[in-house]
Specification:
Blueprint: H1 10-46, H2 51-80
Helix pairs in contact: 1-2
Length: 104
């Protein structure tokens, strides 16, 4: 029988998603500050290049930080709530398929 996930409880799920939103708000603030510093430094050292360059830099940094942070936040959400332990993994272990002759 499949174990019940702690996220099935509405109270636990609400708390977990509130924590995730808090992490994302902090990440958004850090991202905006990082983009502002990066664009400011680029302008200070390179002067007025094309506006498209600054837009590309801002979008690249923002996308990378928010995507990476969002995925890590989901990992923290899944692990912190016990959702990972409720997964039923019935795959055989590696030892069942391994034989000494396969290691050549």
């Amino acid at each position: 029988m499949v174990k019940k996930s702690p996220l099935d409880d509405p109270e636990n799920a609400a708390h977990a998603w509130a924590r995730f939103r808090q992490i994302m708000r902090i990440l958004l603030t850090v991202t905006v500050l990082t983009v502002a510093i990066a664009v400011g430094l680029l302008y200070a050292y390179n002067g007025a290049i094309s506006v498209h360059f600054y837009i590309a830099v801002a979008l690249g940094i923002s996308f990378t930080m928010l995507l990476g942070g969002g995925l890590m936040g989901l990992v923290f959400l899944s692990n912190g709530t016990g959702h990972d332990e409720s997964v039923d993994n019935r795959l055989p272990s590696r030892d069942e398929f391994w034989t000494p002759k396969d290691e050549d």
